[in-house]
Amino acid sequence: MVMRWFRENIWAAVAVTLLRLYLGWQWLHHGWEKVKDGFDASGFLKGAVAKPVSNYATQEVIYPNYTYFIEHFALPNVKLINFLIPWGEFLIGLGLIVGAFTLVAAFFAMMLNFLFLFAGTVSSNPWLLLLAFVIFTAGANAGRFGVDHYLQPLLNRSRTKRTSREN
């Protein structure tokens, strides 16, 4: 009953829109700063490999697969990472602010926050992750006051036409 209210009620949509605008501004602002000023993730990535998240008592690495990923994929492809992070953050923010592909933007916001947390950066990431989760949980109601309100019926019609042609 609560989830239905959260996903369908107009006042829930208003609340989620306010969260969406706040979270979108955070992503847009930080992404644009990185685009404008230049961004180099190599120091961050090297630090995440040199001092991975580990158990306080045993010093055992908690996310060895992620450390392996950083060392063997992200660092050798740091130019790609230097492009994806700033533009990804900027586009996440833009999508959340205008309410276009809201659930996709919230999903990738959560993914980036998880990646930063796995690398050991706590900062504001848990807070931003929680807000993105709330927006994502709201489903289509999260984009009710945005471009998704107009875009979703078009996508549904296109999907219906495609399905009817396949049958």
From TrEMBL:
<protein>
    <submittedName>
        <fullName>DoxX family protein</fullName>
    </submittedName>
</protein>
<keyword id="KW-0812">Transmembrane</keyword>
<feature type="transmembrane region" description="Helical">
    <location>
        <begin position="90"/>
        <end position="115"/>
    </location>
</feature>
<feature type="transmembrane region" description="Helical">
    <location>
        <begin position="127"/>
        <end position="147"/>
    </location>
</feature>
<dbReference type="Pfam" id="PF07681">
    <property type="entry name" value="DoxX"/>
</dbReference>
<keyword id="KW-0472">Membrane</keyword>
<dbReference type="InterPro" id="IPR032808">
    <property type="entry name" value="DoxX"/>
</dbReference>
<keyword id="KW-1133">Transmembrane helix</keyword>
